[in-house]
Design a protein that fits this description.
32% helix, nine-stranded mixed β-sheet, single chain, two-stranded antiparallel ribbon, Carbamate kinase, alpha/beta, 11 strands, globular
Length: 250
């Protein structure tokens, strides 16, 4: 009996820091292998998967030029860091038997295909896991924004953001044990409460295109598969329709 899928095409957003495991920087091979197995379990259900991964475990970028590196150069270094992580994830996925394609927003033909929207969608349709590297290819834009952009471009059903916590809270649950978790929340509430789910540009792009976001704990084995099969896991960020006020006049 075929299992019913809640989402058929997803954009999975992973932070670079998630690949560190318990290390201070770099890539933990154990975490990489676990993520590959989680992604494979969902791909095997017939889900089409795009992935955007950050580069914070290798290079965080710069806020100013006090260290001698200007903002644009720092962001370009960050884009290259995402390519390193993307290559690592691609290799891990192929080791567990998953066909992948790495598409880069920056031209580097010997390493990755250039990002072409129609080609990306064709790869997804053929069942390949598509990893989108190098962010948007532009400075001043985060990988959160790149994830939102690629999800909209590839007509994904949802952005699934894997984190170290179980969803969206009213404060940092790692610092505040009494933090309250939201089951559902609107884009506007995310913006008004200044909750650090994704950056302002990414949330706005999702809001304008009514693209839902699910924030969940990627480090719990089986969570991704359960989410895809419709279990109530994590926090759903979505467009909430406001019911019109009915007039008393006939």
């Amino acid at each position: 009996m075929k299992q019913e899928l809640k989402y058929k095409r997803i954009l999975l957003k992973l932070s670079g820091e998630s690949l560190m495991g318990k290390q201070q920087f770099g890539i933990d091979a154990h975490v990489l292998r676990e993520y590959a197995e989680e992604i494979k379990s969902v791909r095997d259900l017939g889900v089409q998967i795009g992935i955007v991964i950050g580069g914070g475990n290798i290079y965080r970028g710069v806020g100013n030029s006090s260290d001698g590196i200007d903002k644009v150069t720092g962001d370009q270094m960050g884009m290259l860091a995402t390519i390193i992580n993307s290559l690592a994830l691609q290799s891990a996925l192929e080791h567990v038997g998953v066909f992948t394609r790495l598409l880069s927003a920056i031209k580097m033909e010997e390493i990755a295909e250039p990002f072409i929207r129609r080609r990306a969608i064709r790869h997804l349709e053929k069942g390949r896991v598509v990893i989108f590297g190098a962010g948007t290819g532009n400075p001043y834009f985060t990988t959160d924004t790149a994830a939102a952009l690629r999800a909209v471009e590839t007509q994904s059903d949802v952005i699934i953001k894997g984190t170290r916590v179980e969803g969206v809270y009213d404060s940092d649950p790692e610092l505040n044990p009494k933090a309250i978790k939201f089951q559902k929340i609107s884009y506007l509430d995310i913006l008004n409460k200044e909750l650090k789910v994704m950056d302002l540009t990414a949330i706005t792009l999702c809001k304008e295109n009514k693209l839902p976001i699910v924030v969940f704990d990627m480090n719990t084995p089986g969570n991704l598969k359960r989410l895809i099969l419709g279990e109530n896991i994590g926090t759903l960020v979505q467009h909430i329709e406001i019911e019109p006020i009915k007039s008393n006049h006939s």
